[in-house]
């Protein structure tokens, strides 16, 4: 499983509202293409871009933006977060 869990903070919630972006903690060896495929197959939403970074705790965090304007909110509601 490439995706471990959604990364939900106050700043991440502002990114959902302002930029239609979600953040996920992913496997350290996952590539951007792996993350894109996993999200598109799991949530059936077209991914526009994937940015990754390493956190100070040694975890890999992916910031994902979607083509559909309401995709991020829909995914969070499906996960029971929003």
Summary keywords:
single chain; Nucleotide-bd_a/b_plait_sf; 82 residues; 38% helix; globular; rRNA binding; Ribosomal_uL23/eL15/eS24_sf; 3 helices; Large ribosomal subunit protein uL23; four-stranded antiparallel sheet; Alpha-Beta Plaits; alpha+beta
Walk me through the structure.
Strands 1-2-4-3 form a four-stranded antiparallel β-sheet. Helices cover 38% and strands 30% of the residues. The model has no long low-confidence stretch (mean pLDDT 94). It starts with a strand and ends with a helix. It is globular. The protein is built from three helices and four strands. The chain has helices at residues 10-19, 32-43, 71-79, and strands spanning 3-6, 21-26, 47-54, 60-66. It has a single domain (3-79), classed as Alpha-Beta Plaits (2-Layer Sandwich), CATH 3.30.70. The chain has 82 residues and is α+β, with helices and mostly antiparallel strands. Keywords: Ribonucleoprotein, Ribosomal protein, RNA-binding, rRNA-binding.
Give the topology:
Layout: E1 3-6, H1 10-19, E2 21-26, H2 32-43, E3 47-54, E4 60-66, H3 71-79
Q: Indicate the CATH topology.
A: Alpha-Beta Plaits
Total strand count, please? 4
* Count of separate DSSP helical elements: 3
Instruction: Give average pLDDT, whole number.
Output: 94
Radius of gyration: 12 Å
| Global shape | globular
* CATH homologous group name: RRM (RNA recognition motif) domain
**Structural category:** alpha+beta
Tally of discrete structural domains = 1
What is the terminal-to-terminal distance? 23 Å
N to C succession of SSEs: EHEHEEH
Sketch the major β-sheet: 4 strands, antiparallel
The amount of beta strand, in percent, is: 25-35%
| Fraction in helix | 25-40%
Strand order of the largest sheet: 1-2-4-3
Parts with pLDDT < 50 across at least 5 consecutive residues: none
Second rung of CATH, namely the architecture: 2-Layer Sandwich
Q: Specify the CATH class.
A: Alpha Beta
């Amino acid at each position: 499983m490439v995706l471990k869990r959604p990364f939900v903070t106050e700043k991440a919630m502002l990114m959902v509202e302002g930029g239609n972006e979600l953040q996920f903690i992913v496997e350290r060896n996952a590539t951007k293409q792996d993350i894109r495929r996993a999200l598109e197959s799991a949530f059936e939403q077209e991914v526009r871009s994937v940015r990754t970074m390493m956190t100070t705790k040694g975890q890999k965090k992916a910031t994902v933006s979607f083509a559909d304007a309401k995709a991020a909110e829909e995914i969070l509601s499906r996960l029971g977060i929003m």
